[in-house]
């Protein structure tokens, strides 16, 4: 039963003591989230992974997060993902061969290695972080994208940003970069479907990737809500579209959304454009303080891969560890881990 599963997770955790740390992303379902020793957005959790001395880092999140934990932790530590099928569809939209092909095509038009800083959103495979590390680039999260892009544009004149075009565009626009200086690189077309002139004048070259969860939110959802509740506040994650973010009062990472909603006065009504599990949690917390929290989409949309981490997988992972068996370890090969670490540490250094 669910209760037995819960009790066994607690018992296994107790047996492992401080040899174990469980990290939980805000999008995790409640039954898993409650077992996390630390919760946070991608930035906070990557810092936590870097600081933890625990032998086992069990990551309740998605694959790229466990890779980051492995890259930033010591050689004796093991990063574990309770279900190996917990990927990220956005991360899968950029692959090393496609990014390398883009880089080669860009290099025929301009001096890419001297003119373009590659920036990868943390929602990407380790080999793309390694690509950035090798080419003077950097990683960003939704919590530090602005600081990272400012750094990147101080290094070189242009940025190739992957995989999430929305985070790139929303952040660039807030920095004062006009929309005309942001172009979308269609990775299925030669030269990204762009002319040499378009590439030369672009400050940000945005990969044609997106999050399948956040693309569900539409500007009309906000319009309809405001028509009923004119005093309500709207807050969205920067993975949502430009139009949605433009219509929102606040835009920020999951951690920022939580802080902002928590800091608002009792009685505030919020419309939130991010993953359902987090919005449900905020609604519950808000209830106690008289805050009214609404989900932006009229249809249910959850991150199905985050949802793959269930109590059964967590229990199986922990009980195996108790028995001395490491299952579902995520190990990034050293030749990728080293340059990826360079790009990640660059990020951590500038977003202190
Ligand atoms: P943050 O928690 O860093 O805002 O990221 C959201 C997300 O989509 C993680 O996959
Ligand atoms: Fe990937 Fe979107 Fe799920 Fe985050 S919410 S893990 S970006 S698919």
Automatic annotation (TrEMBL):
Its cofactor is [4Fe-4S] cluster. It catalyses: iminosuccinate + dihydroxyacetone phosphate = quinolinate + phosphate + 2 H2O + H(+). The keyword Lyase does not apply. Coiled coil: none annotated. Pathway: Cofactor biosynthesis; NAD(+) biosynthesis; quinolinate from iminoaspartate: step 1/1. Its EC number is 2.5.1.72. Binds 1 [4Fe-4S] cluster per subunit. The keyword Iron applies. [4Fe-4S] cluster binds at residues 88, 211, 303. Its main location: cytoplasm. GO terms for molecular function: 4 iron, 4 sulfur cluster binding; metal ion binding; quinolinate synthetase A activity. NCBIfam families: nadA, PRK09375.2-4. This is Quinolinate synthase. It comes from Thioploca ingrica. The gene is nadA.
